[in-house]
Write a structure and sequence with these properties.
By secondary structure, the protein is mainly alpha-helical. It has one domain. Helix content is 79%, strand content 0%. Helix 3 runs antiparallel to helix 11 and helix 4 crosses helix 12.
């Protein structure tokens, strides 16, 4: 992997991380297009560059993390089920899920169909100014359970948390921003754990590659967050569902036939 590959993958990770289209699936599929061989470093790179996206959330929402303790407590509650399931399935996730293309494509397709069907029947919820006003601790925990489905690449952490929140009656903008905030501890735990387990095996050049990917992820995550906040004020998530289905079908013919 060279610096150009790192920039491309970092940009893909950052921009897609907070959209309901699965950043992990996009990185894996992009790496196939770039002709990158499967390796432990590529798997770790896919996880660790999420630090860039985490930094983007912290940069945009630092006031919430420092001052809104009611929301922070709900984020912690939502993080618990994902942490338990994620750490428990770590070996399966990295050893199987991240390399099994049929599972990824199926998750993209099914998730896309679900988004479309959901938007057909979804009814808008009452407006809310911030997460702590409407997200109880019980709802936070259930959102965390929904997020845990994203251990399967292609499901999308953003899609799982946002749809889970909408089903619980939380207003769209509120759950989207809560999803951003919940991403910080979730991705920090996953990326930090994987990095600590594998950093001793990296060469100096690989650390440089990680840093380039991290910076690209940060920049494009900022753009992705701004894009989604603007998008939800005008359109539904059905468009993302159509995109997911098209992407799954396209890569099925490219990689599976």
């Amino acid at each position: 992997m060279n610096f150009l590959h790192s920039i491309i993958l970092g940009a893909v990770e950052g921009f897609t991380e907070f959209l309901p289209i699965s950043s992990t699936a996009h990185i894996i599929l992009t790496s196939r297009i770039l002709g990158l061989a499967e390796s432990e470093f590529l798997k770790t790179f896919t996880i660790v560059i999420q630090f860039g996206a985490i930094l983007a959330v912290v940069a945009l929402y630092w006031r919430t993390f420092l001052k809104d303790w009611e929301t922070v407590k709900r984020i912690i509650v939502a993080f618990i089920p994902t942490a338990i399931i994620g750490f428990g399935l770590y070996k399966i996730i990295k050893g199987f899920f991240l390399v099994y293309i049929p599972l990824i494509l199926a998750s993209l397709f099914i998730g896309g169909a679900f988004l479309i069907v959901f938007e057909v029947f979804y009814k808008k919820s009452p407006m809310s100014k911030n997460a702590s006003e409407i997200i109880s601790y019980k709802k936070a925990f259930l959102i965390g359970l929904a997020q845990s489905l994203a251990v399967i690449p292609g499901v999308s952490r953003a899609a799982a948390t946002i749809i889970g929140g909408l089903l619980l009656g939380i207003e769209r903008k509120t759950i989207v921003e809560f999803s951003f905030l919940l991403a910080a501890p979730t991705m920090a735990a996953a990326a930090g754990y994987d990095f600590l387990k594998n950093f001793s095996e990296f060469s100096t050049n690989q650390f440089d590659t990680l840093m380039v990917g991290f910076l690209a992820s940060f920049i494009f995550a900022m753009l992705g967050i701004k894009f989604l906040l603007n998008y939800i004020g005008k359109k539904s998530f059905a468009g993302f569902g159509v995109y997911r289905i098209i992407l799954a079908v396209l890569f099925f013919f490219l990689l599976m036939i």
